[in-house]
Sequence to fold (340 residues):
Amino acid sequence: MGRLFGTDGVRGLAGKPPLSGDFVRRLGWATGRVLAAHEPGRPRAVFAVRDTRASGPALRNALADGLGAAGYALLDGGVLPTPAVAALLPRLPVAAGAVLSASHNPAPYNGIKLFNPRGMKIEDAWEDAIERLALDQESAIAPAPRLKPFPAARARYTEFLSKAWPRGVSLRDFPIVVDCAHGAASTVAPALFRRLGARVTVLSAAPNGRNINRRCGALHPDALARAVRRHGARLGVAFDGDADRAIFVDEAGRVRDGDAVLLVTARALQARGRLRGNAVAVTVMTNLGLIRALEALDVRAEVTPVGDKHVWRGMVKSGAVVGGEPCGHVIFREFLPTGD
Fold:
């Protein structure tokens, strides 16, 4: 087995190594051991959410088995977007967070992403230590599940998002189309936009465990563009399976990716004197046109490797308040250290 942790955690086919039940138990146990060493003063619990894949509950149970064997409980937030972990972690009595998702990938895949108690993706040194322990552990981990439901997680995350919405900006009767990719956004996005007053048309919000990302969501925005034109909406937004990225469609039905969002945001923040650092973090995949447009604004592009954890590190290094990727991961430092 090669390196476990990639750009965004551990991923693979559900039920096959490294996401077989036995190996996920080992990963959970190894995670608990590393947490005990690096966060010894934190409560012995891990807050976890998942997307809508059929394999999610079994993956959660295996992770809880392994964490329990290391003396940690799994606080189960149920089906919620990835950024819910980043948002709630600093407010919970836990040592870390976990997201069970393969993001934009098809339903047969799944994955595990880990967060430190401050809501950031775990450090490379933690990944290396967890990987080493899990691979070196040859004997099976005896299940010792300590699974604790946390049904209030959705309401608390929705409240966080509502409070982040700028005062004085009304969505009353604003027509919007939302594509939830049959994923985690289905549990939050339609209700949130309606709560903010928008007139919402919902696409792909009927998950059945097998249809996540299937011809819908951020990787397939054509249906969203057609719906925006058909309904005369002012805006369309398409999430991926775990809702940590979004692709937009304007009122003319034109698709706007993460680069477009970064340019619009940089212009708006600069005009308000709020573009601290006078920089925007981008990745090596960013369109050269965006970099040239930023240069025309006298804004520096801090170029990073691919992955939102690298974008975040680039933001910290440069002092940027916004950063992102063409695929739709956009981070606003004021709110979270991950895309939302």
Observations:
- DSSP finds ten helices and 16 strands in the chain.
